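ugh ok fine here u go
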Amino acid sequence: MPTLLIADDHPLFRAALSQAARVAVPACLLAEAGTLGEAIATLQAMPDIDLVLLDLGMPGSHGLSGLAALRGQFPGVAVLVVSAHDEPRVVRRVLDHGAAGFIPKSAHPDEIGAAIRTVLDCGTWLPEGLARALDSIKTDPDDLALAARLARLTEQQYRVLALLGEGLLNKQIADRLGIQERTVKAHVTAIFEKLGVRNRTQAGVLLKSLALESSID
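structure:
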């Protein structure tokens, strides 16, 4: 019995996605989250989740950072991005950062259901028009390299990185995560080494490169 997580901050759209999922996979179990933090907490509490339908613009997620967080912390869970940002270059970046597919928010419920079934069957889903458009959009080697570096982080290291991006000091991160400050320092050292950066500023620049605006004219 597949288990799906609907992660979107709009209750009405969550309801629409849930309804489409129930029609597509009647036996599925559904969970919901309204923020990235809630999504991560749900995935931690429910390790059997098979698929996340992720809104890129939900609270706590900036651009591709939410997708990167889920792929980094829960690499075994498929992520199907649902977004109004359906420009081909954005979709290319979404796929390069590990999404199993992309659904525009304007999609018909039947199309959403088809996408869910395809990804649960270990396939990749794109609407036909977007699939054709992506044929002319080349993968950015820098994006692939960034995705690969982020994938090297452990779950805890990604949490530390996200808090570094918020400008928190080591002591503040330690308090937020309930760990010792020296443990945070060890994580920060490992993060810098894995990401190929030298300091917090460079780490912050790396996180900002996940913004969607950098993909849109």
